[in-house]
Specification:
Strand content: 15-25%
Helix content: 25-40%
Order of helices and strands: EHEEHEHHEHEEHEEEHEEHEEHHH
Largest sheet: 7 strands, parallel
Bound molecules: uridine-5'-diphosphate-4-deoxy-4-fluoro-alpha-D-galactose
Distance between the termini: 14 Å
CATH superfamily: NAD(P)-binding Rossmann-like Domain
Number of domains: 1
Shape: globular
Radius of gyration: 19 Å
Length: about 350
C-alpha cells in the first residue's frame, strides 16, 4: 500500500484526511511542528515527526529514512485577518518553508503532491459562483501566499515534472462523525467555532465583522463545506495522481452561500441557546461574497459532497464542541520540548 506523508497532519483538515487515509489502508507519516496542531489527534498507528518545515536537515533525515509515494501538504498559517498584520510570518511559513519541502521531495524523487489551497486566491469575485478560471486577485496576504505557492508548484511542474493537485477550499467547517477530532485553533478566528463557543458560554458574545457589505443582509456571505467532504476530495485527488493523473486545480465548496447572520441563526437553532450578537466594524481583508462552483471536481474526479445543509454542518461542529468544551489539551512547554527531542513517536 502506498506510503503518504501528511504535513500539518495534526491540524484540523489534515487530521480528518489522516483518519480517512488510515481507514482506506494507506501507510501514513505525519509531520507537524505542533505550533498549531494537536498531538492528541494523531493516531497511534502513524509515524509522527515533530518538525518545522524550516528545518531542512530534519526534513532530509525523514525523507532519507522513508520512501514516500506522495505528499499531502497542509502545514501553513491560515488566518486571513492575522496575515494582514504579520505578512512576514505568513510568507516565510507558507512560501519559503514550502520550498524546503519541494526541494527535499525533488531530491528523493517524490513527485506527487496534494496542496491545501484556498478560495482566498480569488479576492473579490467578478463572477459568482466562482470557477477555477476566475481571475486570481487575493485581497489578503494569506491568499497571496497561497497564490504564490500555486505558482511555485507550476514552476516545479515545468522544471521537474512535479505532479500536483491544488485544492481550493472555501470555508471548511464541522467535525468528523464521532466528534473525536474537530476544529480547535488558538487563537480561534473562525466564525462557526466562535459562535459555538459563545453558545457554550465560553465567550460573552459573537461579533459580526461588518454589517454594511453589499449583500442581502449586509454581512459577508461564505460557502461552508464539511471537513469530511473535504477529506473525501483529498482522497480522490490522491488516487488520481497515484494512478497517473495530471496536475490540476479544483474548487471545493457547496455552491451555496450563507451570511454571517444566517450562520448565527442556524447555530441558535442547532444549539437551542440564545447567542448574544454584537455588530462591529469590518475585518480587514474580507471579500463580501465567496461561493464556489465545484462542478469541475465533481465531473473529473466524481466528488460527491454529502453535507449540503448549514444546520447539518453546524450540528457536527456542535457535537465536537460539547465533547471538547475546552478544546484539545494545550501542551506544556516541557512536553513540547520532550516531543521535539524525540523525532519519531512510532518507528517504521
Ligand atoms: N466573522 C465574524 N465574526 C467573527 C469571525 C468571523 O463576523 O468573530 C466573519 C468574517 O468577517 C467572515 C466570515 O465570518 O466574513 C467567515 O470568517 P472566517 O474567519 O470563519 O473565515 P474566512 O472566510 O475569513 O476564511 C476561511 C479560511 C480561509 C479561506 C477562506 C475561503 O480561514 O483559509 O475561508 O473562503 F481562505
Amino acid at each position: 500500500m502506498s506510503h503518504i506523508l501528511v504535513t500539518g497532519g495534526a491540524g484540523y483538515i489534515g487530521s480528518h484526511v489522516v483518519k480517512l487515509l488510515l481507514e482506506k489502508g494507506y501507510k501514513v507519516s505525519v509531520l507537524d511542528s505542533l505550533i498549531n496542531g494537536h498531538i492528541e489527534v494523531v493516531p497511534e498507528e502513524v509515524n509522527f515527526y515533530q518538525i518545522d518545515l524550516a528545518d531542512k536537515e530534519g526534513l532530509d533525515a525523514i525523507f532519507e529514512k522513508n520512501t514516500f509515494d506522495a505528499v499531502m501538504h497542509f502545514a501553513a498559517f491560515i488566518e486571513a485577518g492575522i496575515s494582514m498584520n504579520e505578512p512576514g510570518k505568513f510568507f516565510t511559513n507558507n512560501c519559503s518553508n514550502g520550498i524546503n519541502l519541494l526541494e527535499v521531495m525533488m531530491k528523493y524523487d517524490v513527485s506527487k503532491l496534494i496542496f491545501s489551497s484556498t478560495a482566498a486566491l480569488y479576492g473579490d469575485p467578478i463572477q459568482t459562483p466562482i470557477k477555477e478560471n476566475h481571475p486570481l486577485q487575493p485581497v489578503n496576504h494569506y491568499g497571496t501566499t497561497k497564490l504564490i505557492f500555486e505558482k511555485i508548484l507550476s514552476m516545479y511542474k515545468e522544471t521537474y515534472n512535479l505532479k500536483y493537485i491544488a485544492l481550493r477550499y472555501f470555508n471548511a467547517a464541522g467535525a468528523d462523525q464521532g466528534a473525536e477530532i474537530g476544529e480547535d485553533h488558538d487563537p480561534e478566528t473562525h466564525l462557526i467555532p466562535l459562535v459555538l463557543q459563545t453558545a457554550l458560554g465560553k465567550r460573552d458574545d459573537i461579533k459580526i465583522f461588518g454589517t454594511d457589505y453589499d449583500t442581502e443582509d449586509g454581512t459577508c456571505v461564505r460557502d461552508y463545506i464539511h471537513v469530511s467532504d473535504l477529506a473525501e476530495a483529498h482522497l480522490l485527488a490522491l488516487e488520481n495522481l497515484l494512478e497517473g493523473g495530471q496536475s490540476d486545480q479544483f474548487n471545493l465548496g457547496n455552491g451555496k452561500g450563507f451570511s454571517v447572520r444566517e450562520v448565527i441563526e442556524a447555530a441558535k437553532k442547532v444549539t437551542g441557546k440564545d447567542i448574544k450578537v454584537v455588530e462591529a466594524g469590518r475585518r480587514e481583508g474580507d471579500p463580501a461574497i465567496l461561493i464556489a462552483d465545484s462542478t469541475k471536481i465533481k465531473n473529473k474526479l466524481g466528488w460527491d459532497p454529502k453535507f449540503t445543509s448549514i444546520e447539518d454542518i453546524i450540528k457536527t461542529a456542535w457535537e465536537f464542541h460539547m465533547k471538547h468544551p475546552d478544546g484539545f489539551k494545550k501542551l506544556s512547554s516541557a512536553t513540547f520540548f520532550e516531543l521535539l527531542s524525540t523525532p519519531t513517536r512510532a518507528g517504521n
